[in-house]
Amino acid sequence: MDDLLSEFDLRPQPTAERPLLGLTILVVEDSRYASEAIRLMSLRSGARLRRADCLGSAERHLNVYAPTVAIVDLGLPDGSGLDLIQSMAENRTTGQVILGTSGAEREEAERQVMHAGADGFIAKPVSSIAAFQAAILTHLPETLHPKGPREATVTGVDPDPLALREDLSHAMDLLALDAPPVSYLKRFLIGLARGIKDTALEAMALGMKDTLAPPDRAALRKLLSGRIQAMPEGV
């Protein structure tokens, strides 16, 4: 406990403009688009961000350092983020904040992350920088809050379109497999569709069955290919 307090004392003090200054956030997220959004909001808030795109990468990060805040997506390519949340909750550093996040099945996802031992849940997409900051500050001790009033930044962020192209291409690659991981792909696409407000993609993802029939796979490939082709040149 004393070591942790000493560590906090050495960190830069949060300010009204940068209320998360001095924090290290680990985001465990396979979507490059969602990760880029969190990176931009962390940067605007003063926090340092590290990213892991799967459970294996997250475990390697955690073997080296203890982040102040961990934001863990539930649908990961090598397993469930719930397992990581439970493991972190059982071995957490004093004062560490653990948050689950998901863009699919939000009410059930929130129930699951809280049962696994998380402090809170962030539904994707995050509506604004202020909402992102509040989701973290709510669970931090008062000593890590900025002093005095602060103006809430209610605007969002605009992730790099290259990150979106990478996510769409990733989904296309998964569809090209002989046996696509349908359950994982469905959650991935629902979260991505909601993040970019693509109602057609969201509807198709929500309607995915456990086994993709050839016509359904072809229709999904066509939609994803069309989204990639519609992106501006150079993206």
Describe this protein with a few key phrases:
235 residues; alpha/beta; Rossmann fold; five-stranded parallel β-sheet; two-stranded antiparallel sheet; 7 strands; globular
> How do the strands of the widest beta sheet line up side by side?
2-1-3-6-7
**Class inferred from helices and paired strands:** alpha/beta
The level 1 CATH classification of the largest domain is Alpha Beta
Poorly predicted runs? none
- The total beta strand count reads 7
Total helices: the number is 10
Mind summarizing the main beta sheet?
A: 5 strands, parallel
- Please name the CATH topology of the largest domain: Rossmann fold
Proportion in helices: 40-55%
Series of secondary-structure elements, N-terminal to C-terminal: HEHEHEEEHEHEHHHHH
Over all CA atoms, what is the radius of gyration? 19 Å
How many domains? The number is: 2
The CATH H-level superfamily of the largest domain is: Response regulator
Sheet-strand content, in percent, reads: 5-15%
Question: What is the name of the CATH architecture of the largest domain?
Answer: 3-Layer(aba) Sandwich
Mean pLDDT: 91
Instruction: Label the overall shape.
Output: globular
How many angstroms separate the termini? 48 Å
